[in-house]
User: What shape does this take?
Amino acid sequence: MRWMSTAIEIRSAVKRYGTTTALHAVSLEIADNAFFTLLGPSGCGKTTLLRCIAGFEDLNEGEIRLFGQDIARLDPNHRPVNTVFQHYALFPHMTVLENVAFGLKMIGVSLDDRRARAGRMLEMVHLSAFADRMPTQLSGGQQQRVALARALAPEPKVLLLDEPLSALDLKLRQAMRVELKTLQEETGITFVFVTHDQEEALTMSDRIAVMSQGRVQQVGSAREIYEAPVNRFVADFIGETNLIEVTVERIEGDWARVILPGGHVIRCAAAGTSPGKHHLSIRPERLSLAKTGELVATIERVVYLGTDLQLLTRLTSGEAIQVRLQNSARTEVPAPGTQVALHLEEGAARLLAD
Amino acid sequence: MKGVRHYPGFLTMAVACLVILYAPLIVVTVYSFNASTSITTWGGFSWRWYGDVFTGPEAPRFKAAAWNSITIAVLAASAATTIAVAASLAMIRGGRFRGKSATFALINLPLMVPEIVTAVATLIFFSAIGLVTGYMTILIAHIVFCIPFAYLPITARLQGIEDSYEQAARDLYATQWQAFRLVLLPLMLPGVISGFLLAFIISLDDFIITNFVKGAGMETLPTAIFGSVKQGIKPNIMAISTMMLAVSVLFVTLSYLVNRIGQRTRS
Amino acid sequence: MAGLTPSGQGNGSGYRRIVAPLLLPTWLMIGIFLVLPVLLMAIYSFLTKEFRGGVIWDFTLASYDQFFLNRGLFGDEPPVIEWTYITIFWRSIWQAAVATLICLAIGFPTAWFIATRPPRSRAIWLFLITIPYWVNLLIRTVSLKFLIRDNGPLNEPLMALGLITDPLPLVNTNLAVQLGLFYSYLPFMVLPIYAAVERYNFALSEAAADLYASRWVTLWEIVLPVVKPGIIAGCILVFVPSLGAFLAPDLLGGAKTFMIGSLIDEQFRGSQGNWPFGAAAAMILMTLVLIVLMFYARAQAREGAR
Assistant: This one.
């Protein structure tokens, strides 16, 4: 087993454009040999951060260390990181092979050597047959793989990928996700992947950093982020959730006594909160219909989704609650207008810091 | 670290470029105000050479030349603009027709043929058919090479106008002519004006072709200036040059402004 | 259905029917007063000169003969190549080429610089670059002549400052003519290159930098090949007019810098002129231009097919 070193360490990175701040003191650690994803909506700063690592933007404050070495002052062509661009940026006047060999040419590899290495790269992405074609003659998916091969050819320590799958259609995207994941595992290179698609992030990543408005909201594995969101943004951005305002009565060690709307009291993890008003996140699939439950709601609409049944309900106190039931040989589908009791599974409720 | 757009030395080149382009013009403008008769030493600020242009010994000659230049330019630009409007309507609104690409080549022909070749050919032609060189020959030659210059802005403007406007007018019982006059022409106007200004300046500035076909005893402003320069650069030449410079800049700015206004009313 | 497209090419357009009358003035003017004259000029190049300056309708190859050879093809002695006129043509090609190169060397960085400015200052730069073009070419050439003369505003300060002892020998030199040509046609180089750089995808430069290319290597390997069409267009737009230029060589040059334009002009002045010879020279010039344009058209077609 390899000793896990830190591939990239970002300390208090600040990036400003005129009066707007794109990155507010961002700090991150990215482990070697990991598939690390920066996830967030447009404008959250994930692409800015990636470009800072690549060297196309300068930080106003803060450090970026690559395996311990400070690279913040280096030009992009002196950093051993390579980028797969969102729209591939393949050189239109060079063949596929010449594109892939370009980085090798720049670092001084001899003609024969770089042709051989580029050829091997193309084999790895299954495009050997296209070596002498021009980029414009390739489909989107093929271009994307050429861009990948080109970035991997110089054997960088870190590979940066800027939303590389966003221009592909669904089936291709799903296939590429598997390919990329396999590639990362085989090469052992650290991948830093930027996307706004949370399903993509959840399926591919070892660790995810959720970003919003220039700040890192939470870092963790897919499971941690989904099941234990720290704030409303993360809870809402990842998957679907119900957010209701509750009152924390008191804290007992790691646990909190929480008063739900309707008066019922439950116990859940304190998550660093103190007594007062907070938000609670409950995933729709963790609620079920029961004879008695912690919440009482009226069904407003029932939506049939094939695999699931989606119930849109409303509490007596007015909040909208979504419930997801897995479809099975059910005898009764509750009718709109019925009042039902909703039962929270063990640990379904997460208290949020905000 | 600067971005990928930055190349050291390019800013210097661009500035040097501007300096080289403007230096001679600025120098001439400055010296046109030189009080002393010597063109090499500075003798103080004076308007005398401007006065000399209008009242000095060469004044009648320049006045006649200026009159010729201006009237020819107005007439040639008007004719060329009208012809270009018609051509533009045919090319842009006429759909596909036989000879369309030939017409396109024909319209661009004056731009492709080197000026001196045009000049020679035109002179030979007039001589062969026995047309006496003078005002008319200059005018005809000017109209020909002004057509493509007027055509360009007019076409650019017309291409951006959807034909739904005219269709709406026809739908409301307007005739073809009314639809053109009341709907299309007003919308085309910025392009037409721009084309006219362009053609005007091109005609006013022309030297080579004019010089060939003007015959003896006839002068336009450029040919008069050329003749005078051949005898040595005198201060009044600089005054005239500065005035023509000012007129050119004025016209360019006007054309630019007309285009800007046109942009705001763009469909 | 009918023509809701911006270009209005629908068949509902009523202009279709009147295309012929609309184009008649154009066809008449350009057909009669340009196409016909050029054809006539071609014919004239095969005629005999009249001593008063004019022609006799006697067909001969004399003009072309005179151009290339010392003695006739059909004379008693074997023909000897007449170098005088060929030299003039060659010199014109050379001058035009050098002027084009100077325009490229200065025009490319300028165009790149302007195209990489933020939009507002870009418009100002473009405006500034194109204004001198709108000034009468004669005036611009005269101004240049004034600037570089021996006791003029360029040499005087330099001599006064003691930087040079004798005035820079600029007037009547090849350099002066090249400078004049550069000055006349620079915007024609800048604008097409500017258009090409404006369309350039800068992510390509970033990708090159990402793959360890230095700034200048990127320029050579990536930028230039991609903006090549704009560069070629600019070169053509400078080279072709420079070939047949008259003003710059005439005003700024001297006997040693005699070019095609002046040669042709000379044939039609006064009674020493030789009209057929002038026509022949003009025909040869036009052929040269057509060859260059044909190369360009073919290069364009090849680019399009790629």
Summary: DSSP finds eleven helices and no strands in chain B. Chain B has a mean pLDDT of 86.
